[in-house]
Design goal:
The complex is a heterotrimer. By secondary structure, chain B is an all-alpha fold. Chain B has helices at 2-33, 40-57, 60-87, 91-113, 140-162, 164-174, 176-181, 186-211, 218-222, 225-233, 238-257, 262-265, 272-279, 281-284, 294-305, and strands at residues 129-133, 136-139. Chain B has 15 helices and two strands. Chain C is an all-alpha fold. The chains are: A alpha/beta, B mainly alpha, C mainly alpha.
Chain lengths: 415, 316, 435
């Protein structure tokens, strides 16, 4: 943190501090632009800690291509326009690699900005590495050569989940409940489409939308789910909207299986434990700590020691950083143009399980095996619990890469 | 049908009393001091976190008493050294003062308890289903909420309407000079009222904390719904606040039960196609989709057509 | 309305009999400043920040037409900013597709018209009431519109919002508006024009009636004005200028999304207007510049920026409800009476312990932060380039001593300042009476 600069008289000195010195020679600077204050900070801080941990680790081993890695954090307050100012700030400070993840609205703004900036400023290109925004628009209609996505888009995740549900014969009735905004609709639309295709016998008994983080009492929604006779619920809800939903369901005695995208998010595990709903909440991710892959577990242990038993919430950040470093070493350069060229189509063994994934050239979406895990009491070979609940994520199924591939409409404009 | 109506009514009433529980302190401060306390949700959050902290050490029940006392004390300090100074600059300045306070309280909570939700649980003695209707459980904790809410309403009403203290407090807002002449310390009355309001917010926090999510942004997430209740109910009316809470609880709950959109209403009619083009997305939006934002619509309508609120005695 | 608003406004000097330069000097100075600034601060960030300040000045000034001029406290002003921006972005896209021949320069007008129309529609509903009722209606409408924005995904573009490209419109004189500096000049020009227009409005009889409605609605009604109409017109015009600001935002960021019309944006314009000072025309300008700067820069320096922000705001409400502009305005009579030099030493005397107190306070805050939020990073930290451990006793003692003595000395000095200010005002008055 650049806390050494604390100066309270700053307010009076207006714009004098703006012109900051350019990047020092011999450092690979990476800007991390995510919420570090306010409501979104809980997750923004997790990503930052992981990146800092990675940088410390690689620097201790001599850096990348002989250069030290420096992570420069910028607080975007989860606001797209503040983000653009921060991106500008990062560029001024000589950073040409931008990492951002939280919020598709922010991601779309950054993707747009980076594309236009690179068009208008040839020779000064910047590259945007996205580790968490999963709106399919980012790799379809809005896709950009300068954007690389490591988290599977919601289409991919729904594809994987429905491929998993395909084999579950005891599922008869599915209820969909989502937040009423782009991501929720993307999840619901994909689920309706793919279920119809893969399991026409499954009845979709509800397709509910509710405003984003405006609901305090979910009991009427739970009553509806109950009345519909559903045995399975698919939801893209996150944060408070997930926690309150699962608690209201437990209160009312609703017994269903939950297929989720963000149940593992900050506060989710606590809520599931409070609801005492073991082994009924499933989550789809690109990995989790209890997969039993030794190299990953060693890192997670080291990370937990350093960050007071904080979980590794974004395994893909490790994959992303490793791929970036590989591209820098391959090209012997930290020029974004060369890095982007090298990343396209790169094959790489992922962090969570050492399985091979690839960065698809058509839309710059990273594909790797996905995992469905359930939340409940842990077995003896599963050392990692979440949020001190004593429960953790346990493997339910692996979805191989071939079952996650979705087509793209991206028409990539290459420089 | 009977099942839907019955369950929705029950859920609506239970949600309504939770809303009243949260809004009661705001009503007290608003009706007796004329101050619209933006920091009310922040006091509510403080109550939840204090309750959590105390429950970690000596249990939930002591927390229900101690946390409101602590927050009430903080409220009195805020009134004495903050609000009173601002008072002479008028109501807008008071409102903006409490607006600034929300930032400070949120940051302090983040510093002490972090940004992640804390594991604040329902006490084991209340963690069981009280009864079951139509195969739906109703937890005992919700019945406890209901009881506390009714108790607060009855006590407040009795104090305001039936006791001397209530009379003096009511008089102090309209005629502070006269009340002062009669030998009452008006400043101290206001300080006490603000303290009571903050303490009531904390009671709501201690009770709603385990039921909802106790997190450093819970004040912000609650949003302006409580103002809606106070204003819709009518300035200065406790009864109005109760009616408004129940009304909003029921409206919201019943709205969720209906999947009707404009498209459904005009289905089959000749003009449907044209209207759809004109209205765009609104055409497809169902009532249940917008249920949680209906209270704001209600607020706007009420203020236009009945500015004094449902049961208010004077214009806001 | 608060007394703060009743204080004599610090009008920009407008002595009608003093000749051209004296009358319009401040505006000429403003033009020169707007032209020269990007050459002094030429980094990309500085240009972006100044562009942002430009549109925020318009936004804050338009807000002050409500709060400062007419006494309407609105919690939903960002609605007009957002709607203006969205429509501008849509129109830019439409113009691009249709191959129309409109240059980019005129597009903020689209935002303005949108703001005006939505101001008329929403104003007809909300301005029937004043005071707290109006504030609550604006809160409700703001919440309604910003919640609907996410639901109505075709117009508002869902979570990603609506993006556009400012360089694809007709180029006039070969200006593409690709480089930020060209956008800066566009914003500066619109900012200047809007500011002049809003200032002129305050000088018209209508502006005066607004003040009357703010100060004493009964009396305004008694002399034959319909207070509802006055509020309504003021509200619509404020919508117009907020829409212009929103249109400029669409051009500057080339993307609009629903966050721009939410409660945060509405809240920050209140902060701008109030911290700058709602009693005069210059206040919101100062506030917009200062608050924008703090919003952009403060979060780099400390993660607890919201705390400092809240404290600053509370401090302003408590001790300087007339804002920064109000504080400056109070020096005007001393300046004219040539007594300013007598009080300045006292200001310095108060400022020093004040700074000491602030340093102590921020030390306490930062150390607490290090021990709680940054606990995994260990207790080692630096403050003003001084490294130390936050879990040792000595820094805490130092911080608390600084805070307490600073505050105590500041309060004492503040009393002396008040005293000397009073004397200086009397002296200035005497001097003026003698001359």
């Amino acid at each position: 943190m650049r806390k050494g600069l604390i100066s309270t008289t700053l307010g009076l000195s207006m714009l004098t501090a703006v012109a900051l010195p350019a990047a020092a020679e011999g450092t690979l600077k990476i800007a991390y632009i995510d919420p570090l204050s306010g409501g979104g900070a809980s997750i923004g801080q997790l990503g930052l800690n992981q990146l800092k941990f990675i940088a410390e680790d690689v620097n201790a081993k001599g850096g990348v291509n002989g250069e030290k890695v420096e992570i420069v954090p910028y607080d975007n307050k989860l606001n797209p326009q503040v983000t653009l100012v921060q991106v500008q700030k990062a560029i001024d400070e000589g950073v040409r690699i931008i990492v951002q993840g939280n919020g598709s609205s922010v991601a779309a703004a950054v993707e747009d900005f980076v594309t236009k900036y690179n068009d208008r400023n040839p020779g000064k290109e910047v590259i945007y590495l996205n580790y968490a925004a999963i709106d399919p628009v980012l790799t379809n209609a809005k896709c950009s050569y300068w954007h690389f996505a490591w988290d599977a888009s919601s289409d991919i995740k729904v594809e994987a989940v429905t491929n998993f549900l395909k084999g579950k014969k005891n599922i008869k009735k599915v209820y969909l409940i989502d937040q009423d905004y782009s991501f929720g609709h993307a999840v619901a639309d994909a689920a309706v489409r793919m279920l119809k295709e893969k399991r026409p016998d499954i009845e979709i008994v509800g397709n509910e939308f509710h405003p984003l983080v405006k609901v305090t009492d979910f009991s009427p929604y739970v009553a509806k789910i109950k009345a519909s006779g559903a045995d399975t619920v698919i939801t893209g809800n996150w944060g408070q909207d997930f926690a309150l939903l699962i608690k209201a369901a437990a209160d009312a005695g609703l017994k269903v299986d939950w297929y989720t995208f963000y149940a593992g998010g900050a506060g989710g595990p606590t809520a599931i434990k409070q609801a005492n709903d073991a082994d009924h909440v499933f989550q789809i991710t690109e990995g989790f700590s209890n997969l039993g892959y030794k190299p990953a577990q060693d890192v997670v242990h080291a990370y937990a020691d350093h960050y007071k038993s904080e979980p590794v919430y974004y395994p893909r950040v490790f994959t992303m950083a490793a791929m970036l470093f590989k591209a820098v070493e391959d090209t012997k350069s930290d020029n974004p143009v060369k890095i982007a060229h090298d990343l396209e189509g790169m094959k790489f063994k992922d962090f969570s399980a050492g399985e091979e994934g690839f960065m698809r050239k058509d839309d710059h979406q990273f594909y790797e095996p996905l995992y469905i895990s359930s939340f409940g009491p842990l077995g003896s070979t599963e050392p990692f619990d979440e949020e001190h609940t004593g429960w953790g994520w346990r493997l339910a199924a692996q979805i191989p890469v071939k079952d996650t591939i979705v087509p793209t409409t991206c028409k990539m404009k290459r420089p | 049908m009977l099942e839907i109506v019955f369950i929705s009514t029950l859920n609506g009433v239970l949600y309504g009393v939770l809303l009243f529980l949260m809004a009661s302190g705001l009503t007290v401060i608003f009706s007796m001091m004329g101050v619209l306390n933006f920091a009310h949700a922040s006091f509510y959050m403080l109550g939840a976190f204090f309750g959590f902290e105390i429950s970690q050490h000596i249990g939930f029940w002591p927390g229900l008493v101690i946390a409101p006392l602590l927050v009430g004390g903080i409220g009195m300090v805020v009134e004495r050294y903050g609000l009173r100074v601002v008072h002479r600059h008028g109501h807008v300045a008071e409102l903006l003062f409490t607006f600034g306070l929300t930032f400070v309280i949120q940051e302090v909570v983040e510093m002490v308890w972090g940004k992640l939700p804390v594991d604040y649980r329902v006490p084991p003695s209340l963690n069981f289903p009280a009864f079951t209707v139509f195969a739906t459980n109703y937890p005992a904790f919700k019945m406890f909420e209901l009881l506390i809410s009714i108790a607060i309403f009855v006590v407040l009403l009795a104090v305001v309407k039936r006791t001397r203290v209530g009379l003096i407090v009511q008089a102090a807002l309209g005629h502070p000079g006269m009340v002062g002449m009669l030998g009452h310390n008006v400043d101290r009355i206001f300080m006490a009222v603000f303290g009571v309001g903050a303490a009531l917010a904390a009671v709501a926090g201690v009770i709603a904390g385990p039921a909802l999510v106790t997190q450093s942004n819970m004040a912000g997430l609650l949003g302006p719904i409580l103002f809606v209740i106070v204003v819709v109910g009518g300035l200065g009316s406790l009864g109005g606040a109760v009616v408004a809470s129940l009304l909003i609880g029921l409206v919201q709950t019943f709205a969720v039960a209906f999947n009707v959109s404009l498209a459904d209403l005009f289905k089959g009619s000749a003009i449907a196609g044209n209207l759809e083009g004109f209205f765009g997305d609104i055409w497809q939006v169902t009532v249940s989709q917008v249920a949680p934002i209906l209270p704001y619509l209600l607020l706007v309508l009420i203020l236009i057509f009945r500015p004094r609120g449902l049961m208010g005695t004077r214009d806001t | 309305m608060s007394d703060a608003a009743n204080r004599p406004a610090i009008d920009l000097p407008s002595g009608r009999s003093k000749g051209f330069v004296a009358a319009y000097g401040i505006w000429i100075a403003a033009i020169i400043a707007l032209l020269v600034l990007p050459h002094i601060f030429s980094s990309g960030l500085a240009l972006t920040t100044m562009s942002l300040m430009g549109m925020m000045i318009i936004f804050a000034l338009s807000y002050n037409m409500l709060l400062g001029q007419t006494g309407l406290l609105s919690f939903g002003h960002a609605v007009f900013f957002g709607l203006g921006g969205f429509l501008t972005a849509h129109m830019m896209n439409a113009a691009e597709d249709g191959g129309g021949s409109l240059p980019l320069v005129v597009f903020p007008l689209v935002g303005g018209v949108t703001g005006l129309v939505s101001g008329i529609v929403l104003g007809a509903i909300s301005t029937r009431r004043a005071g707290t009722a109006f504030a609550m209606i604006s809160l409700g409408i703001g919440e309604l519109v910003s919640s609907s924005a996410l639901i109505l995904r075709h117009f508002f573009g869902g979570e990603e919002g609506v993006s556009t490209n400012r360089t694809n419109l007709t180029h006039v004189f070969g200006i593409s508006f690709g480089p930020q500096i060209q956008v800066y000049y566009l914003i500066a020009a619109w900012c200047f024009v809007s500011a002049v227009a809003m200032y002129a409005l305050t000088r018209t009889p209508f502006g005066r009636i607004c003040n009357a409605v703010r100060d004493n609605p009964e009396r305004a009604r008694f002399i034959g004005y319909d207070t509802y109409s006055v509020r309504f017109i003021a509200f619509s015009l404020a919508g117009l200028f907020a829409g212009v600001a929103g249109g400029l935002a669409a051009i500057n960021f080339e993307i609009m999304n629903s966050a721009q019309m939410g409660a945060t944006q509405s809240g920050s314009v209140i902060l701008m207007a109030f911290i700058g000072g709602i009693g005069g025309f210059a206040g919101p300008i100062i506030g917009a510049i200062l608050v924008t700067y703090l919003q952009v820069m403060l979060s780099d320096i400390t993660e607890a920026w919201q705390l400092y922000f809240g404290l600053l705001f509370i401090g302003m409400v408590m001790f300087a409800p007339s804002g920064i502009a109000g504080l400056l305005a109070r020096q005007l009579p001393l300046w004219q009476g040539r007594q300013l030099h007598k009080v300045i030493p006292f200001y310095v005397l108060a400022l020093l312990p004040g700074l000491v107190a602030v340093v102590g306070l921020s030390m306490v805050v930062e150390m607490t932060y290090q021990l709680t939020v940054h606990a995994p990073d260990g207790p080692a930290m630096t403050f003003f380039h001084v490294p130390f451990d936050a879990d040792t006793v000595i820094p805490w003692i130092i911080a608390i001593v600084l805070l307490i003595t600073g505050t105590w000395l500041f309060l004492r000095a503040a009393r002396m300042v008040g005293h000397s200010y009073g004397e200086a005002v009397l002296a200035a008055r005497a001097r003026r009476a003698a001359s």
